[in-house]
Design goal:
The chain has helices at residues 2-16, 87-100, 141-147, 228-234; strands spanning 27-28, 49-54, 62-65, 71-74, 78-81, 109-115, 120-125, 131-134, 158-164, 172-178, 199-202, 207-212, 218-221, 242-252, 259-263, 275-280. The chain is 15% helix and 31% strand.
């Protein structure tokens, strides 16, 4: 019976040389275990690629990908629904099937996850390596940030996590979490256990702009409690031609969105998006 099984797989290999195997069907393994990308995962789902090993029978080593239904097709065992199961449980089912049908007396089957595609989290925005990352077992927000290469210099302190939520009117739940403490040093950095389908967005830090008679004109990141005096110090201070009495801020009107210019004092607050202009003094 074992010879028949080997012969059947050999025939399948010859056929696969002319035509790619259909997703979900068992195909001769082309990825050795040392090259696997996945790790220990709790359950598998559609799109995940598994590596099947029958100990003592190296010719039966194969890889298989779950189809959109979460099914695979195993030789002599037929269609198997394995989505949502642990790799160890799938291995036991295959071993039991081979034993019960008389193909092997005492099969020892192992399943290793090669690639995880069913449980992914996405991260976008001001990170070094934005993209989709697998959730292997568990994954927290801070771990995802580390995998994505960390925050860019222009990243905001707060990340937005979008999560599917059938009870929410929009179908999504929005969560804002503190991931840095540049502007809020007394608050601890927040973490979150991510779920499949979560989307993390790290926006650029909010900035204000300062021009005119200052040493270093340009855009600067916002700070909590920022006032005009602090903004001037961030820009290197006033030039010799500057007038402390001729400082203005252009700020969008909350109602119309139009820019409105107003004179300010050194202790007046600065808001995100403000454009500060320091005019020269009269001689």
């Amino acid at each position: 019976m074992l010879a028949a099984l080997v012969a059947w797989l050999a025939l399948g290999t010859a056929y696969a040389a002319d035509e790619m195997p259909h997703p979900g069907r068992l195909a001769p393994a082309t990825v050795v275990p040392s090259e696997v990308e996945g790790g220990a995962v709790a359950t598998v789902g559609p799109g995940d690629t598994l590596y099947l090993t029958v100990y003592g029978q190296p010719e039966l080593a194969a890889q298989v990908t779950l189809d959109v239904r979460g099914h695979i097709v195993v030789p002599f065992l037929g269609d198997m629904a394995v989505g949502g199961e642990a790799p160890s449980a799938i291995a036991k089912r295959i071993a039991d099937g081979l034993r019960q049908r008389g193909y092997l007396n005492d099969p020892q089957v192992a399943i290793e996850v090669l690639r995880v595609r069913s449980r992914m989290a996405s991260i976008l925005g001001s990170v070094a390596k934005p993209g989709r990352y697998p959730i292997e077992g568990s994954l927290t927000l801070l771990e995802l940030l580390a995998q994505a290469g960390g925050l860019k210099d222009n990243a905001d302190d707060v990340a937005v996590v979008l999560r599917k939520d059938g009870q929410a009117e929009s179908g999504q739940r929005r969560m804002e979490l503190l991931i840095g403490n540049k502007s809020l040093p007394e608050r601890p950095v927040e973490d979150l256990q991510l779920q499949a389908g979560d989307v993390v967005y790290v926006p650029q830090a909010k900035v204000f702009y300062i021009y005119g008679e200052v040493t270093r004109a340009g855009a600067y990141p916002m700070e909590r409690g920022l006032n005009v005096m602090r903004a001037l110090s961030l820009a290197g201070g006033l030039t010799q031609r500057a007038s402390e009495r001729r400082i203005s801020i252009s700020r969008p009107d909350p109602g119309t969105g139009e820019q409105r210019k107003q004179r300010v004092n050194l202790d007046d607050p600065v808001a995100a998006g403000d454009v500060i202009y320091v005019d020269e003094r009269f001689f």
